[in-house]
Design goal:
24 strands, alpha+beta, 7-stranded mixed beta sheet, cytoplasm, protoporphyrinogen ix oxidase, domain 3, Protoporphyrinogen_oxidase, single chain, FAD/NAD(P)-binding domain, oxygen-dependent protoporphyrinogen oxidase activity, EC 1.3.3.15, 3 domains, globular
Amino acid sequence: MNEQKKKVVIVGGGITGLSAAFYMQKAAQEQNLPIEVMLIEATKRLGGKIQTVRRDGFVIERGPDSFLIRKKSMEEFAKDLGIDGELVRNATGQAHILVNGRLQPIPPGSVMGIPTKMSPFLGSGLFSLTGKLRAAGDLFLPRSRVEGDQSLGQFFRRRFGREIVDNLIEPLLSGVYAGDIDHMSLQSTYPQFYQVEKKHRSLILGMKRTTPKQVPQKDGHGASKEGAFHSFRNGLESIVEAAEQQLFPGTVKKGVRIENISKQGNQTILELNNGEVVLADAVIVTTGHMAAHQLFASHGLLKGLKEIQTTSVATVALAFPADAVVQDKEGTGFLVSRSNDYSITACTWVHRKWPTTTPEGKILLRAFVGRIGEEAIVDLPDGEIEKIVLEDLGKVLTIKGKPDFSVITRFKEDRPQYRVGHRQRVDEARAELKQEFPNVKLAGASYDGVGLPDCVNQGKAAVEEVLQELFHN
């Protein structure tokens, strides 16, 4: 029976690869399909960017800290793994933008920076009167005539002018990608805004009409009790641990990489650095795009993936006694406008946003450094990065003494940039593979979304595609 099984190899053990392996195994069990799954991970651990540090009662995320609830795939993954009871929502509060050295509250009614309530926007200290009047021009401007892809910067500056984009929209939209909105692809990052303009003409009117009205419950301080994000009580790595535990013994190969890839009839030959040769009936490559390019470089394929740029970022978690930090602003953190002379790009007041992460009597701050064009700080020693971050935070908060400890994590050349034309580059890469290696699929953060739910969706979609080709064609 083993000889008749179809061998499916997943390359890369991040959240995309893990979800693909789990759902391939699940489909084989539920549909009684003859499938053998193998997951190959070059490092000694699974999870990719998901890394949780559990120390002295703190739960500290090195990489992503949560995922959007409205994107259901991560919550469904947790439910399928039997750990949905461990999900926790973020506590919400006022978020701020650091502009001209001052923390300014994001106006209520802003949807990704687009005002849907005019009174808070007009009263905001984020913009000058001239900037507010220019932004109001969106109410009267015609639809854009730009055909095809365009940059976020081009799109939003046309509708709102420079000031609202620089002081509000850019910090909100560029943070996920650590990117430059004047190069980021509208089509590949936030296509919903293009659709809103196309349908409603004005973004302000369109977002006002399409954004669901919410009546959040309030706590005693006037802040919403629950927010729009989920994590796990013991950290995001809980989902990695649960998925690995449920994969069949022998499925996962860690610390092993592919040295060469070739074809033999309808199968793909994978030569591993441990000397093993694997004949695969289907391969799902979930690594970053540069690793995928290198895998097929000897065949002259996927050269276009080299055009997908990356940037380096670092996260800096700082644990303090509660009396060491004085915060005179309510809320859960702030983003930094590029107009400021700061090295940090954002700071989360983790003990407020995720109360379950922090022991009683302690404070946990998490700052971010590095983005496109400003990556040099990521290469500095830990002590220098910590010093720079503390100096920046000291301009905004009153900090007494040094932290109890810090956790600094670097992601070098790791954040893919979805620049204008990204969709076309990805489509061309997949078309090349379909021609030369038709049973190899590309999935992961480099292609169709960097958020955790986006990655899970890609893993599941690749599984469906493979199943269709193996058993229904």
